[in-house]
Every structure is written in C-alpha cells, then in structure tokens.
Design brief:
Elements lengths: L30 E5 L2 H9 L3 E9 L2 E10 L2 E6 L5 H14 L3 E10 L9 E10 L12 E3 L2 H14 L3 E9 L7 H9 L2 E5 L2 H11 L2 E13 L2 E3 L7 H16 L2
Helix pairs in contact: 2-5, 3-6
Length: about 250
C-alpha cells in the first residue's frame, strides 16, 4: 500500500468515470458570471433582468441557471454554491455546456485590518489550502487566475474610476480552523484575503483550458485580536455593484 496521501496522487488523465450531465436547450453562451450573492440574483430575477434557462440538480436542491442579455450579447449567470468541491462541480457543468470565459464575484475575509470593508480586490492567485484543486493540477502551493481575466477586471475598474487591490488569496476548506499560526503563515507569504473557492476554480479553469478570474470585496476581519463580522452581508449596494462589474469584465473577455 502506498503511504502517499491520496490528495497528492495527481492523475493528469482528462478521462473520468463520472461526467457532467447538464441539459440545455439551444446553444449556451460562451461567457458566464458566477455570483455568490443570492439576494442580488433574486432581485434581478424579480426585476426581469434575469431569466431561468435551466437548473443544476444536486441533493441540496435545484440551482437555477440564469441568462442575462447585456449590450447585445448573452451571458449565463449561476450561484456557484459554497465551498471548493461544489463550486468546482458547478463550473464543470457550465464548461460542459460550452462556457469558455468566466468571471466570479464574491466576498472574502480580510487578513489585514487596513483593508476596509467593501474594498475591491482582484485575485491574481490563491494558496491551495483546500482539496479540490489537487484533483486538477499537480501538487503546488499556489495556482494563478487567468491573466486575461485579471487584465479585464483591472481595465473595468480603471474605467469606472474605482480603487482596488490586486493580490493573493488564501483558499481554505477549514472555515473554523483559521488559526492564528495559519493566518500568520498566509500573511507572510503575501495573502491579503481568505475565502473557500478561488484555488479550486482557478485549477479547474487551467485544467479545462478556459479563462477565469475572480473579484471579491472586503468582508469580515480575520485577525488575532478576534473576528469581526463588520456587517459584511448588509453591504447590498456593494454586492450588486460587484455583480455588474463582473458582467462588464466578462463581456470584455
């Protein structure tokens, strides 16, 4: 029996036993926005700006696939769930439909109190402190976002005149295991924020050879002195703005 931890047994084969089974009527757009803000999606659906064109069905229920018409084009919009495995699985489903260009928008915890609540951060890379990415890429500490997507996000933010940061995230599976020592290590290697999906999404994108980037806004504060929620779920205008920034950047890919 091998003593190598299973998560390090990388297999580069593109063939897998289980494959996505999503059905979609007609031809799906090549672009998609993954939005973590459920209340934003519900608002836009109620306003008629989004329409449901399909579903991803898991044990948690039916997750709608939305379509958005924007500036003469079409984009798919989807809530990617929470956590790396589910988000990666949902992304795989979209890729199977023909999606090739993706922008993700969501929130994050910040590791430095200097980063204000609501501050925009474009993720250039992520530390792989989760499990999903190791099924898509050989073991390594970090994985990068698609450079084209990072550029598209930065161009969108500059065009809007919005201040932002570009940096590295700490992607973790252990929501309640963000200890002082682990946080310090991540800060020392340059992480600005912490979240639960970016490394996996970047890895899937590299493996499937698609373009994907992610923008987040500063949410709760994760520092040794204690956790501070900073009412980050209540920043409704920031969350809706982030969605439209993601749409604009995705359309520019």
């Amino acid at each position: 029996m091998s003593e190598t931890p299973p998560i390090l047994e990388y297999d580069p084969s593109p063939r897998a036993i289980v494959k996505p089974q999503t059905k979609f009527e007609g031809r799906a757009p090549a672009r998609a926005v993954l939005c973590f803000f459920q209340e934003v999606l519900q608002k836009l659906l109620a306003e008629g700006q989004l329409r449901i064109v399909g579903h991803l069905v898991y044990e948690i229920g039916r997750n709608p696939i939305y379509e958005l018409e924007w500036q003469g084009g079409r984009l798919l919009v989807l809530h990617p769930g929470v956590g790396a495995p589910l988000a990666a699985g949902f992304l795989e489903e979209l890729i199977s439909l023909g999606v090739q260009k993706v922008i993700v928008c969501g929130g994050c915890g910040v590791l430095d109190r200097v980063i204000a609540a609501g501050r925009l951060v474009v993720l250039r890379s992520a530390v792989r402190d989760e499990g999903t990415s190791y099924h898509y890429l050989p073991p390594a500490r970090e994985v990068e976002a698609s450079p084209q997507a990072v550029m598209a996000l930065e161009e969108t933010l500059r065009r809007r005149g919005l201040p932002y940061l570009v940096g590295k995230s700490w992607t973790t599976d252990g929501l309640y295991r963000e200890t002082e020592m682990r946080r310090l290590r991540r800060v020392m290697e340059g992480c600005l924020v912490v979240e639960m999906e970016a490394a996996a999404l970047f890895a899937v994108a590299q493996f499937r050879k698609i373009t994907l980037g992610q923008i987040v806004y500063g949410g709760d504060l994760v520092v040794p002195e204690g956790w501070d929620e900073r009412a980050w779920f209540e920043r409704k205008s920031d969350r809706e703005l982030l969605f439209w920034l993601a749409v604009e950047a995705c359309a520019g890919l």
